[in-house]
Design goal:
elongated; 12 helices; about 250 residues; 3 domains
Length: about 250
């Protein structure tokens, strides 16, 4: 994380004032005062850098330990509680973005979609870079989908198409890219294709966490079919060809 120069500045102001006070009190000449000023300034800067580094290391270790709670579905609630505590305290925009993304994911796991969407509105988009943009796009698109906000979902994934495409290019996240494709087919009422894609995905990615996601989206798909929601017309030949390519 970057050094917080605002905090350094706030620390430096009273120290500079103290130095000027000492200069007047001890009647120091300008040369001696300038040397003392440089020494103290260097010490403040070095001290601030060290404090910042220590804080970063401690913060990362703490986050790593809390993230271990995600490995077990039974500890998701505890994960959210810990993240909520941190979210109330953290102030730096980069750190806040990190906590908001993690907490929004926790809410998604709890199926608290309204909470997730509300929280994601607090993201500092200016400070959102690299992988964080991908996670933001994934979390928010998932939130839109499960809230049934399909127009917003479609509009959003088009806006963040570049970020979401990355999911299909990295083995670790490929299954999440496929999950988004299934969301999209449901959103446009192409239920037959969504069902076929889901069936393939369930066989290819069968680990516990992935299995939970397939069950969740299958529940949405089944609800659509049971409700008699009208399915869009599709070109079966083209559709079968796409599935073969998948």
């Amino acid at each position: 994380m970057s050094l917080n120069f605002k905090k350094i500045f706030m620390i430096a102001i009273p120290i500079i004032g103290l130095l000027f006070g000492l200069k007047i009190y001890f009647k120091l000449d300008d040369k001696k005062f300038f040397i003392a000023y440089l020494i103290v300034g260097a010490l403040v800067l070095i001290g601030s850098v060290l404090i910042n580094m220590i804080y970063n290391v401690r913060f990362i270790k703490k986050m790593k330990k809390i993230n271990e709670l995600l490995e077990n579905q039974d500890t998701i609630d505890k994960y959210v509680i810990e993240m909520e505590k941190i979210e109330k305290k953290v102030t730096g925009p980069v750190y806040r973005n990190m906590i908001i993304l993690n907490l929004s994911y926790g809410y998604l796991e709890q199926e608290e979609y309204e909470k997730s969407l509300s929280l994601l509105k607090n993201i500092d988009m200016v400070k959102l870079k690299g992988r964080s943009r991908v996670i933001f796009a994934l979390n928010k698109s998932t939130t839109y989908f499960y809230l049934g906000l399909y127009d917003e979902f479609i509009s959003f994934i088009k806006e963040f198409e570049k970020e979401l495409h990355i999911l299909s290019t990295i083995d670790e996240f490929e299954w999440q890219g496929k999950l988004l494709e299934i969301y999209y087919q449901i959103a446009i009422k192409n239920y037959k294709k969504a069902g076929r894609m889901l069936k393939v995905a369930e066989k290819k990615w069968a680990e516990d966490k992935m299995s939970r996601e397939w069950k969740r989206v299958r529940s949405v798909l089944n609800d659509k079919l049971e409700d008699g929601d009208i399915e869009r017309e599709e070109n079966e030949n083209e559709d079968e060809q796409e599935m073969t390519e998948d």
